């Protein structure tokens, strides 16, 4: 591997960052053999199963139930926001230390299985949250967020273990796509069976929120069934160095790791920063997509629901398809191309908003096409640059960096609407479409910080 120039123009001697010296971090290396092995399927089904928490509990169903002012009080929405924020701060604090400990002990399977099992229990306990029991619901949701993200750190770090150097992009894309599709399949089952009808399957009604609460038991069972294959086949690895004692010792190791990355290949550190920025923009697309559709384009609640289902299906299919490009084209090109396409689509939503719902359907779905590919390619990129034995720690830093800037998209979204309303004089209610400019700015900032990262260490030509 050749020397590479860092962002500051100085030459840095790269240390080997993969187990195969002929493979560079973003090698668009072709692989003739198939990638859908039994291990890959087992790994990807964890994403399919755990999507019950993200798609159903956090995004579409239980969060809506818990923030209903008629059922849980006028302050439920505010308290819910604070709960999620506090959970995010805790994840940012503990993720790198847990990652460092997991790598040092080699106990990936142990941490993943414990996190998954606890998450399933917490999901099942949501069944007890009747109207008025706000604080019990908030505590369970907050703990669930923390445990889910800890499990996801370990799960993401396993992508390199489940793939070969020439298939990591396809494996990552397939797993991420399975998560999208799995969540929507479960959502449709719950919507048709329990949420939409007055009397659902098994005679379930909405009295005391029973249709929502019973759906949480289904979510727990769904996650258990589809997570079980990975929980059974995963294996703990060999210990990788001495284990630090205590939390302070773990964070000292984290600081030393960051310094080591900075000295050996500072493009790793810059990637963590850049990815944190544009990933917040990606989160903003889905977090505010429904709100934008309703406030800016007049979508009804049912139309928002239909758009959300379509958006997730499009994202899932596109992510699996772009996984092939990742391996043959390179993760860096997938990230750059997708971010550019998203920025163009976002600005089209803004400039052509007078065209109404058709414009949002066309360009809103186009935005969703590229969300998953960027997320998946970022995971495969990080897997390629992770040093052997340090994958979980690096993915822990990845999660922490993402949390550190998670305020950016919400802040710029709201700011853009406020400035747009002041500029046009139409009032906040009619300036909802300006919010997409805030999301586009976050994506643009992420793209601009990603472009200067040294290409030399990330191209096949560097071999």
Structure summary:
The protein has 463 residues and is an all-alpha fold.
Can you walk me through this structure?
This protein has one domain (34-462): Growth Hormone, Chain: A, CATH 1.20.1250.20. Helices cover 73% and strands 1% of the residues. It is built from 17 helices and two strands. The protein has helices at residues 38-60, 62-66, 69-72, 76-105, 108-125, 134-157, 159-162, 168-195, 210-233, 246-265, 267-297, 301-329, 331-351, 357-385, 391-404, 408-424, 435-450, and strands spanning 4-5, 11-12. Strands 1-2 form a two-stranded antiparallel ribbon. β1 and β2 (11-12) form a beta hairpin. It is globular, with a radius of gyration of 22 Å. The model is unreliable at 1-25, 27-32 and 456-463 (pLDDT under 50).
User: What CATH architecture do you see?
Assistant: Up-down Bundle
What's the number of structural domains?
Answer: 1
Weakly predicted, low-confidence segments: 1-25, 27-32, 456-463
Shape: globular
The N- and C-terminal alpha carbons lie at a distance of 5 Å
| H and E string | EEHHHHHHHHHHHHHHHHH
Given the helix and strand composition, which structural class is it? mainly alpha
Helix content: over 70%
Q: What percent of residues are in strands?
A: under 5%
User: What can be said about the biggest beta sheet?
Assistant: 2 strands, antiparallel
Number of strands: 2
Number of helices: 17
Which CATH C-level class is it? Mainly Alpha
- The radius of gyration computed from the alpha-carbon positions, rounded to a whole number of angstroms, is 22 Å
The order of strands across the largest sheet is 1-2
CATH topology: Growth Hormone, Chain: A
CATH superfamily: MFS general substrate transporter like domains
Mean of all residue-level pLDDT scores: 78
């Amino acid at each position: 591997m050749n020397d590479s120039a860092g962002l500051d123009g100085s030459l840095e001697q790269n240390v080997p960052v993969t187990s195969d010296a002929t493979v560079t971090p973003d090698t668009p290396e072709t692989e003739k053999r198939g990638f859908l092995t039994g291990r890959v399927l087992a790994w990807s089904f964890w994403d399919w199963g755990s999507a019950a928490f993200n798609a159903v509990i956090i995004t579409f169903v239980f969060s809506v139930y818990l923030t209903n002012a008629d059922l849980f009080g006028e302050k439920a929405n505010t308290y819910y926001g604070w709960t999620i924020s506090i959970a995010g701060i805790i994840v940012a604090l503990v993720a790198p230390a847990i990652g460092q400990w997991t790598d040092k002990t080699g106990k990936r399977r142990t941490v993943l299985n414990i996190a998954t099992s606890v998450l399933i229990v917490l999901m099942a306990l949501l069944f007890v949250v009747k109207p008025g029991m706000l604080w019990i619901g908030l505590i369970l949701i907050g703990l669930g967020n923390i445990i889910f993200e800890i499990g996801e750190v370990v799960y993401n770090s396993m992508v390199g273990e489940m793939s070969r150097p020439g298939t990591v992009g396809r494996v990552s894309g397939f797993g991420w796509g399975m998560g999208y599709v799995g969540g929507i399949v479960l959502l449709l089952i719950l919507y048709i069976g329990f949420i939409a009808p007055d009397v659902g399957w098994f005679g379930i009604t909405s009295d005391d929120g029973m249709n929502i609460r019973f759906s949480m038991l289904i979510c727990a069972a769904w996650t258990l069934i589809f997570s079980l294959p990975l929980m059974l086949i995963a294996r703990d690895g060999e210990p990788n160095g001495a284990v630090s004692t205590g939390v302070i010792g773990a964070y000292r190791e984290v600081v030393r790791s960051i310094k080591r990355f900075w000295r050996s290949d500072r493009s790793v550190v810059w990637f963590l920063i850049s990815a944190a920025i544009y990933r917040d923009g990606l989160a903003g697309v889905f977090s505010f997509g429904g709100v934008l559709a309703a406030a800016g384009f007049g979508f009804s609640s049912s139309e928002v629901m239909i758009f959300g289902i379509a958006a997730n299906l499009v994202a899932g299919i596109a992510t699996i398809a772009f996984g092939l490009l990742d391996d043959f084209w390179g993760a860096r090109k997938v990230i750059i191309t997708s971010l550019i396409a998203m920025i163009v689509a976002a600005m089209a939503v803004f400039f052509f908003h007078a065209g109404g719902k058709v414009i949002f359907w066309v360009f809103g779905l186009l935005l969703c096409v590229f969300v998953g590919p960027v997320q998946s390619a970022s995971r495969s990129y990080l897997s390629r640059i992770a040093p052997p034995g340090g994958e979980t720690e690096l993915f822990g830093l990845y999660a922490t960096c993402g949390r550190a800037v998670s305020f950016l998209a919400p802040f710029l979204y709201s700011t853009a609407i406020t400035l747009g309303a002041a500029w046009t004089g139409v009032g906040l209610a009619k300036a909802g479409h300006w919010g997409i400019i805030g999301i586009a700015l976050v994506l643009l900032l992420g793209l601009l910080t990603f472009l200067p990262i040294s290409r030399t260490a990330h191209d096949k030509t560097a071999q």
